[in-house]
Amino acid sequence: MSIFDSDRWAEIWNTLSKNRTRTILTGFGVAWGIALLIIMMGSGKGLENGITRDMGNVATNSMFLWTQRTTMPYKGFQRGRSFNLKNTDVELIKSRVSAVELVCPRTQLGGYRGSNNVIHKDKTGAFNVYGDVPEYWQIEPKILDSGRWLNQADVEESRKVCVIGKRVEEMLFEYGEEVVGSSVKINGVYFSIIGVYESARKGDQAEGDRQSIYIPISTFQRAFNWGDNVGWMSILMNPDADADQVQVEVKEVLARRHSVHPEDLAAFGSWSMKGEFENIKGLFTGIQALSLFVSIFSLLAGAIGISNIMLVVVKERTKELGIRRALGATPRQIISQIISESLILTVIAGSIGIIFGTWLMEGIDMLIGENVDTFLHPTVRVDVVVYSLLILIVFGILAGLLPAYRAVQVKPVEALRTE
């Protein structure tokens, strides 16, 4: 029996269309199962894209470390002691911890997420002001809009220069006013603007990033009486390094330098972008696994429905099958016919589900664009569609096996007696 036999296809169509309501309701289960797979996988990808976009180009192998109060007495110092990181800690960390590639000391006016009055002519704004080294852009890149970044000469010579965010420009300067070369007053100290940047992030994080001002750390420490104190360290690790282990090693090195008890690691706070990124990746893997699990069982339920309907069809066609057997039809031909009917119904219904699911994801993508912070481009990969089709074929064959087996058990004589 050839797959190009038109009589065979006509017979399959006649069987499926004989009871259209039953066929449609049965196929709906398969269509919904495969559509659910497409929708859930696409939504998971959209969530992943959105969160990844919000993170911008921040190096995923970075970590951040700061000091807290000690929790254990040591070398004559009482617990609860405050202490500061120093400029010299930079080289210490780089020389003692092999997995560290880059250490950037950082400071900020007003402490964590602090803000200060910045003045330009008759306009005033409250912005985050950071003291940084040029290398920090390797950890959190920016998009240069005009001018230039900080450079090493700015740090070595403690130049009173700054790079401002785009939002700072919008709030302090008139439209068309020359920004680069102008000056702003920060806490009573004048700084010349050498560059304007745009954030590489999106959403709320981008808005906060655009409202920042960066000045050389050496200038920051001298202008605002910080001495050689550092607010925190931004550290770039080797991509293959264990983030948790690196954090422990850095804390141990700093504990010895600052006379902190070797076991008092709580005296240092730290946060790892690499660890966070790995957690997010694990979350997305879990979401995809759950989506696949739920969708496969939905497809399985649909396949079982098709199998049950085919059993009913076989029962209804008992006399027909008996006549076929009496006229010389082989068991193989009967099995091929029943499985073909099951497979065609499964593939047609599943293809409708794939088209609907893909269309829905594309429609959502066009509707929301880039307006939702944590959801972006809920695309469906081609391999997901291909695997979905393969799953449909397998389930279609499985759905037809039991009915086909029942069909070949029909004895011609008994079938001809059936009313």
Automatic annotation (TrEMBL):
Domain ABC3 transporter permease C-terminal: 293-410
Major place of residence: membrane
Annotated Pfam families: FtsX, MacB_PCD
Annotated ranges, domain MacB-like periplasmic core: 23-252
Domain of life per record: Bacteria
Example of a GO cellular component annotation carried by this entry: plasma membrane
Annotated TM spans: 24-43, 289-314, 342-364, 384-405
PANTHER family in alphabetical order: ABC TRANSPORTER PERMEASE YTRF, MEMBRANE COMPONENT OF TRANSPORTER-RELATED
Descriptive protein name: ABC transporter permease
Organism: Phaeocystidibacter luteus
